[in-house]
Amino acid sequence: MSSATVEQQYDVVIIGAGAAGLMCAISAGQRGRKVLVLDHAEKVGKKILIAGGGRCNFTNLWVDAENYISGNAHFCKSALSRFSQYDFLNLIDKYQIRYEERAHGQLFCRDKASVIVDLLLDECSLAGVDIHTEQDIQSVHKNESFQIQTQNNHYCANSLVIASGGLSIPKMGATDIGHRIAEQFGIACTALRPGLVSLTLNSSELNNYASLSGISVDASVSHKTQFFREAVLFTHKGLSGPAILQISNYWTPGDHIEINLLPDTDLQQQIEQWQQDKPNTELKTLMSTLLSKRLVEWLISLYLENKPIRQYQKTEIQKIINSFQHWQIMPSGTTGYSKAEVTLGGIDTHELSSRTFEAKKQPGLYFIGEVIDVTGWLGGYNLQWAWASGYCAGQAV
């Protein structure tokens, strides 16, 4: 330790000033613990500020364990029940933050996402929490207590909480420090990959799809038994939009996804009706009353023959149905961590207490939020996991 280094003693040091870290600090500070939050960024809550397009989709009315992906499906249940979406809404109401409900129970701020960060900082202040930004963690050791060394400070704490997030959106400061600390203490980590991310197509497929770029359609997207009904956006790289981001959490390389472009339509019945009412009208014209003309023309040119609707036989009608309602696409990959909203995988939940988030192999060491192998759907579920896991760990440290 250099002569310029200052040693500071805390009950709890939290690495990461994001949603989970700040909530943990509030929860612990309210119990009278002396708490310090460290972050390498120049300001706290950077991912909160960009969440929900800058309006922060801060939770969801329909939170359930089934909305999360983990190697242990039961792990998240305890925390989600002990700090629910309604508990966070109590905080929202306390600060008179205006919000609105959107599709699928998603709750967004009516104003900028900064109101959520301000709420967290105000609660930290009330709880006596110290926050030090621009602190690069150089080393972490455990003697009688945890020793945390930054570029110019040395901190000691009986409890160390890792709330450093995942690898997604590195331009926001994402690092693998949480996974490295876990490895240092012999704590297992499951395989990591980008989640809630756009899917890409190989170059030959992209040439075929180029004319669709910019089209958005309300569709149902499925992979095996999992499906989502939301918007699909065709891009210059492949497929995006909420339904694609959702299914990306379940897709694995080498698998196809299936898109139903007309999830509310009985296309068999519709075609039979057209054959009666508009027998001489071409398929392209009729389908363009249901979907984007550009998309219809492209699909027909690729998979079907365009002719008057009366001329289609049963086998041809089935091919139309398959093309529009069972359209199978084989993605080549994803746009990676730079565009991913979350990281799938993380600290193996079997290594942690589901009640306290303490590592079973290392007393006093806790992991919360995105760094754990618990990933929520799009729609406020990941922030609710951050609030819940942070609160519960804060009650234990």
Overview of the structural elements:
The two termini are 27 Å apart. The chain is of the alpha+beta class. Strand 8 (139-142) and strand 9 form a beta hairpin. The longest helix has 14 residues, at 381-394. It has 13 helices and 21 strands. Helix 1 packs parallel to helix 5 (114-126). The strands form five sheets. Strands 1, 2, 7, 8, 9, 10 and 20 form a seven-stranded mixed sheet that branches. A seven-stranded antiparallel sheet has the order 17-16-13-14-15-12-18.
Q: Flag low-confidence runs.
A: none
Helix content: 25-40%
How far apart lie the N and C ends? 27 Å
β-strand amount: 15-25%
Q: Tell me the Rg in angstroms.
A: 25 Å
Number of helices: 13
Secondary-structure-based class equals alpha+beta
The rough form would be described as: elongated
Mind describing the biggest β-sheet?
Answer: 7 strands, mixed
User: How many E strands?
Assistant: 21
List the defining traits of the structure above.
single chain, 397 residues, alpha+beta, 7-stranded mixed beta sheet, 7-stranded antiparallel beta sheet, 30% helix, 23% strand
